[in-house]
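Two entries, shown back to back:
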Amino acid sequence: MPEQAVIFSVILGYFLGSIPFGLFIAKLGGQGDVRNIGSGNIGATNVLRTGRKDLAALTLLGDGGKAAVAVLLAGHFFGAPGHLFAGAAALLGHCFPIWLRFKGGKGVATFFGALLATAWPVGLIAAGIWLAMAVLFKMSSLAALWAAGTAPLIAFLMGHHGVAAMAVFLALMIFVRHKENIGRILSGTESKIGQKKK
């Protein structure tokens, strides 16, 4: 693949990924700046802490959709493996958006969007792992860590070696962005799904 196509794929993915849907949706929904509540995060889990499930659902779709669109556009215009670079860059853009001084979200929905668009069976299995862990422990962060941590192995075992390589990068980003959550999980103080800031 030409180096120029890789660069364009990364740029496309980053700027699409950097769109802060949670920030826009919460404000339009009359909830103010979502960065001032809960974890201060711009993702769907923190939007849910406003008590507005509809806004959280829209944020989830937006954050996942922007990665999927990045993957599909890069694949259409630049081919493989440009779509994988775009998916990885979309997560990078979400976590470190230039518009918000590189202070973005945790990247879970964007992670799933990239996986589903590159290899939907892998994405569905990872989503199933997330759901199972969320139901068992009621912690979005723990569920995300399990899904991210197992995704590279799932992709590799299913023969999607390029997706597995992308998933390694995605998983590393998820773990880095959840560093504080990991500390709270270990200390037993991590917040539960739907819990509002006291």
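entry 2 starts here
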Amino acid sequence: MRRRLELGKTLSRIDFLMLISVFFLMFLGVAFIYSSGISSTGINVSNEYQKQLIRIISGLFILLFFSIYDIEKIKNFAIPIYLTLLAILIYTRINGSTVNGAKSWLYIGSFGFQPSEFTKIATILLLAKYLDDNKKEIYRLKVFIISFGIIALPFSLILIQPDMGTASVYIPIFIAMIFIGGCNIKHLIYLLLLGGLTLFFTMLPGWEEFILQSKNPFVTILNNKNLLLYLIGSFSFSILLSIIGYFYFKKEYFYWVIYAFSIIIVSLVISYIARTYVLKEYQIMRLIVFMNPQVDPLNFGWNIIQATTAVGSGGLMGKGFLQGTQSHYQFLPEQSTDFIFSILSEELGFIGAILVFGSFFIILIRGILILTYAKDNFSVIVGAGIVGMIFFHVVQNIGMNIGLMPITGIPLFFLSYGGSSLWTALAGIGILQGIYQRRYRN
């Protein structure tokens, strides 16, 4: 009787609904990685599905470790783990292997991995530690800036690989964690507006050249360094006058002028640096073809056109498992990784897509509920970062498969072929399970 009670108590501490959803997605992943390796003649030309099975088995040990190991003990190692992975990112940028245009891989013999994936968990742990240690002062601008700096370091190192897709994941992680931590909303809105305006200014010249195909006066300013400096100088002078006015007259509208104009200035500077020194041509073209794939249908627009064609051709019930044409005739690029959702949707149709949506919905909802069960602030913030990470991967990957998001090369957690992303996702699920298991602790 006692053993039954202990077994029941142990089982009650496991979020089975989340785990069932994760295992279901991994099962679908292996099935459609296998499907992606079938040629038009019906012959299997890839052993990726076998490798993925091995990665799943090894990943279960990672999930188990993070489920059992107390998150509070992991907190004590957050700084050395973070610094170690930053050092590995620097080494990767210098001596790493280039795959798909990004020097983001390290190889030990035939075993390859992406340190940028593991850095997500390390960054979440350190940021949660910092926010928890400074929870009484989290409303201050200083804490917000330092918190963003924790994210900015790995973000910058990954961006220069260049891997814009993986780097972009760090932004929603930061937003989720700083919001749950209790930051000043004005600081968060400032960051969101700055990011949106920077993206807008970055895309504008390409929009003029490839889509508008006529001269726009404002874009002319953006492309002319001297005119751009004059514009920035004008805004800067306005800010200076507003600062003087704020101190002399104590009127709040001076504060909001400084707030708005500083967003414009910083976004202009960052967008110019990004276009000139950071972003590669193919990365800018990905943003352009997102607005109109027909700009370059046989090159940069090919991926999004073929992906949306595959999804649309599946209809309600799909063409049937192993019956897809887009994948088996090799129309889809990176079909076992970035575009696994397109293969699934073509063969299982709308019903299959709904099953995937439903599984991720369960994982995310259970993740959010686990935050309400957590008994300490550190666990809540860590959980928020993991939920934010999973949410962005789902929205971005599925979005780019159906033409609602630009193509960035972000894998779909649990389904896409690859070990680094799978292990990162399973580590995140393990941490959430660990938080759930300790929900009754005082």
